[in-house]
Fold this protein.
Amino acid sequence: MAQIFGIDHKYVAVSTAALSIGVAAYSMYKYRSMVAAVKNVVPGSEVYESEKLLGEYLVFHFGSPEQLIPYPFGPKDALDFPKRCAELCLKHYKPQEGLPDRALDIGCAVGRSSFDLSRGVKEVIGIDYSQSFIDAANTLKQNGEMSYQLVQEGDVFTQAVAKVEKDVDRSRVSFEQGDACDLRSSLGQFGVILAANLVCRLHHPKEFLKRLTSLLPNRGGILVITAPYTWLRDFANKNEWLGGYVGADGQAVTGFQGLQKELGPYFDLVEEVNMPFFIRETARKNQWTVAHATVWRRK
């Protein structure tokens, strides 16, 4: 979702054509970070901070079924993906001695999963590369709601309001801008971490996974990763991919196998499930995708 949810830079530079491909992929998923090393904004990258894209993610996170699918048909089971991600975390995480009662939502976008995680832990930190997404999440934290524009078609918009559910204790949640591959050293430790639609949009996913062992060091900690496994050279060099390639032995390597290889020494796999999600672009053009969700418990 994306830094999924915000600049899709190639590690050193991107061509205009590559950027246009990144834009299309970016709007599908939640994570947004491409390269912390590249600090300058490349031409065209302002699209990632656009009001249109912000509206897409606000309705993705907080929209009603009627706003998202205003028809008597459609994939209604794909709605509320951020909420379902938080629920999957809390299904497995139980406060216990030795576990920090804190959650990290990395690639949080506009914050729905972070707010829902606060129902089960005392503190939640949401991090995303997109400053506009973090600004929106902080507005929701402060006010409990925010107005935004929802595109219908072309330049035709309607006004909408994103609202945090009233029973959520917003004081438990904080948001900050950051790169998942270069997280600040002072984050501390957590009892549960959510990385939704993130790993296949990182420039160095293996480095991110290695960092998780220090963020979630205590036995019993819960890690939830969801991914559609859409590996693209525009996000990372192919040698950084966790899967989606043919190995030297001629066998296909999947993203799930890559996760098992990287996480297996430190985590036990406790559940895997297919989770559909639905992103509304306009009143009539939308995206339906199935993420593979895996739940890991720290050894």
Q: What stands out?
A: The longest strand covers residues 267-280. The mean pLDDT is 86.
